[in-house]
Write a structure and sequence with these properties.
105 residues, Alpha-Beta Plaits, two-stranded antiparallel sheet, Dimeric_a/b-barrel
Length: 105
Amino acid sequence: MAKFMLVYLGGNQPSNPEEGKKHFEEYRNWLVGLGDAIVSAANPLKDTHVIHPDGQTEAGSTTAMSGFTVIEAESIEEAVKISQTCPFQKIGGTLEVSELVQMNG
């Protein structure tokens, strides 16, 4: 089976702690439901820094990427179908799905 990265982009912050707990529980249940398809479950990002070609750095991100999950699937179509069930979209988030290329060496 091939490996695919689901990249989480954007998404709205919860309006209160209870809403945040509800969203987290839905997401956790979704991950559990994926079973053996999960390679690397929840990988939220924080404290992003950008390193420019000239070596200069700056705090912050040039994208709205907030995290990623790695799954196994038979095809990109199956990975997309799995991604379409993710509750992240309920909070205004977008997902990008890409196949990971196995590099030797």
